[in-house]
Write a structure and sequence with these properties.
alpha+beta; 17% strand; three-stranded antiparallel beta sheet; globular; 11 helices
Length: 272
């Protein structure tokens, strides 16, 4: 956010509101004055997922917030144990179908990104795997490394060092085919048409912000994202820069909420 601060010519105060998978910070932003001085760096887990999984969450993202700009997309990666006789998404899908449910999918826990992404992949790919939830992403990924489970669709930072060490086999990423976050690694959607399950970061504010303020913030974020240092910082965490207009962000979020809803249904996770 230092780049944004420089461009608008005033300091920014970061107020980290931890808890409830980010929902507390989202709720605080919803109730703030819509004057442009209180905005949210929102994430897919807090904005798209929390309303489906937490009974206490009452905000509706498309109704309660003005969308300013997407900032970044974060891919999940499909990785499997090196012993699996597959080297592509297509081969993996054929293998999993032929196993008739006799494969094991790891996740970071019920309702986690890896759980929902994996459930969505099973529906799209026409196969079933036994879900084995763990207490956190690192434990889930470690189970694939050890062979306790067969595969996981997990945020890229959790797996890429293990891929580099040949302890996991990388088959594809979950962004749309137009994106290339991991060099020559193909997207799952290039072999399983239409599949996409990305996480994202975006800038949002309370609904009712002046259009001129939304426009100014959108322009400022777009300029900040052209900074090589900011782009490099995002890429270090496996993200890619994805600036947008407010309208494009709304279109993207609308699609993402629908994808999340269907994934929650596929995973059979009930709100708590």
């Amino acid at each position: 956010m230092n780049e944004v601060s420089k461009l608008i010519g005033q300091p920014l105060v970061i107020d980290n509101r931890a808890g409830a998978a980010g929902a507390i910070g989202v709720e605080a932003t919803r109730s703030a004055l819509a004057d442009g001085y209180s905005v949210l760096i929102g994430s897919s887990s807090a904005v798209s997922v929390a309303p489906f999984l937490q009974k206490a969450v009452t905000y509706q993202p498309l109704r309660d917030f003005d969308l300013i700009a997407l900032v970044a997309l974060l891919p999940n990666v499909l990785v499997c144990h090196p012993s699996l006789p597959v080297n592509s998404v297509t081969q993996f899908l054929a293998y999993a179908r032929n196993k008739n449910g006799d494969t094991k999918m790891a996740s970071a826990g019920l309702g986690s990104v890896s759980h929902l992404a994996g459930a969505a992949l099973q529906v799209a790919g026409g196969f079933e795997s036994l879900h084995v939830p763990y207490r956190g992403g690192s434990q889930g990924v470690a189970s694939v490394v050890s062979g306790e489970t067969d595969w996981v669709l997990t945020p890229a930072p959790a797996a890429m060092s293990l891929v580099a060490g040949k302890r996991l086999k990388l088959l594809g990423h979950s962004l749309a085919p137009a994106h290339h976050p991991l060099g020559n690694t193909p997207s799952i959607g290039s072999e399983l048409t239409g599949f996409e399950f990305a996480s994202w970061i975006g800038l949002m504010g309370p609904t009712g912000m002046p259009a001129s303020v939304v426009s100014l913030l959108n322009k400022t974020v777009g300029q900040a994202l052209q900074s090589p240092s900011l782009a490099k910082a995002l890429e270090t965490h496996g993200a890619i820069v994805k600036s947008s207009t407010p309208e494009e962000f709304r279109t993207y979020l609308t699609k993402d909420l629908d994808t999340t809803r269907r994934a929650v249904q596929a995973a059979n996770v009930k709100p708590e």
